[in-house]
Amino acid sequence: MRIGVPKEIKNHEYRVGLTPPSVAELVAAGHSVAVQTGAGLGIDFSDADYVAAGATILPDAASVFAQSDMIVKVKEPQPSEIALLEPRHLLFTYLHLAADKPQAEGLMRSGATCIAYETVTANDRSLPLLKPMSEVAGRMAVQVGAHYLEKEQGGRGILLGGVPGVAPAKVAILGGGVSGVNAAQMAVGMRADVTIYDISNARLAELDMFFGSQIKTAYASKAAIAAAVKNAHLVIGAVLVPGAAAPKLVTRDMVKTMKRGAVMVDIAIDQGGCFETSHATTHENPVFEVDGVIHYCVANMPGAVARTSAFALNNATLPFVLKLAAHGAEAAMAADPHLANGLNVSGGKIRHQAVAEALALPFEAWTH
After folding, report:
1. Max Cα separation, the chain?
2. What amino acid positions are annotated as catalytic residues?
3. In terms of C-beta density within 10 A (0-12 exposed, 13-18 middle, 19 or more buried), how is residue 205 classed?
4. Which of 170, 189, 231, 294 lies deepest, with the highest CB count within 10 Å?
């Protein structure tokens, strides 16, 4: 199969769909890989590194799309990229369509087959291609939260871990999944006062066993979240409903009760955000204030640590890329129902029910 890797063009996005080691694996399996010039520079890989791995370098995205059957990316295609898609194309990348109707409609018009990393599943019902970036985002959330709590950043002027004789900051983590656990690990390591909120009692029990006395757990009732937000110095939104828009757990009225200079980090912003006051930001302008509360809502958080993120993502995606390249989309999805769960758009139709419901668009199941 002919595989193409365009340079990412989202604001301050430095990751790349395939690293040179991944390219080498695909070439060894008999496939050809075309990489747009400069695609790997953000993670310190030159065009020469890709040539050494067996890739062909092309001058622009249009050339990559024209000469490829499968496009492997990191972030959702931007309008200029959607315009290059044709019905013959297989697109494999993060899409996050539930919060982006224009993108969904553009992909439908293209006729391309679009498989989203974030809805591919595993036997244990986990999301293996979302997991590595959830790990990165969870850990980053605490780093950026600690940074924006600093006074010169507009924050409350609080050290996350405190010092002897001065209490640590209170950190409320909404959601006990992959992002939430990774955020908690970092916050605990920085000696913060951490509480994780979740609606699954079974999950709360697991978290209690895993962390022991290092954290507190609480059932995420509306009243509990309201109290948590009022008292917290750092609130991390880490909820996920696979494929669907994130629920708005923190209302505008709750934000009004918060301490001036408190910080909110919305990891769920790719799916529309879990704070009512959230709107997507970029690494160029990452934060805004609402009622004196700092909001960090960058929609591609892991792009800030692009090299770590690119390798972590490739570790997870490469086996699926190899499968798709070897068999084609139809046969690969027919043989692997977990990969089929990643299908969001094909033949001009929305193929994922949660996406269709979130966007109020017709759903038509894929059949083979």
Report:
1. 65
2. 96, 270
3. exposed
4. 294
